[in-house]
Amino acid sequence: MPPRINELAPRLFIVACPLGIVAGLVATAGMLLAVTAFATARTIIIPFVATFDGFHDGGETNAVSITGSWEAAGALVLALTFLLSFALFRRVRTPDDHHLRA
Predict the structure, then answer these.
(1) Residue 64 has pLDDT above 80, yes or no
(2) E strands present in 1-102
(3) For residues 7 and 15, what is the distance between their CA atoms, to the nearest angstrom?
């Protein structure tokens, strides 16, 4: 491989992994908040991202209505990915950084 691509590959990997991790964590948090709103019939608001409106539908049946912004959720994922990638770049050294002292 050309030297430029060889230097770029480990850094792209360090950015791609946190993107998947953060997207999974945000999706899991959203699902847990929806379950909580459903079970407790309460409203949970995350400003600019989502509102989980739990309520009793008809008789005593619980229900949940979710409204939110995909753009805000995407921005949240990108911001958290940037922070995690920054922390990893400060902590992890790539094979091309072997000349740097620990």
Answers:
(1) yes
(2) 43-46, 50-57, 61-68
(3) 14
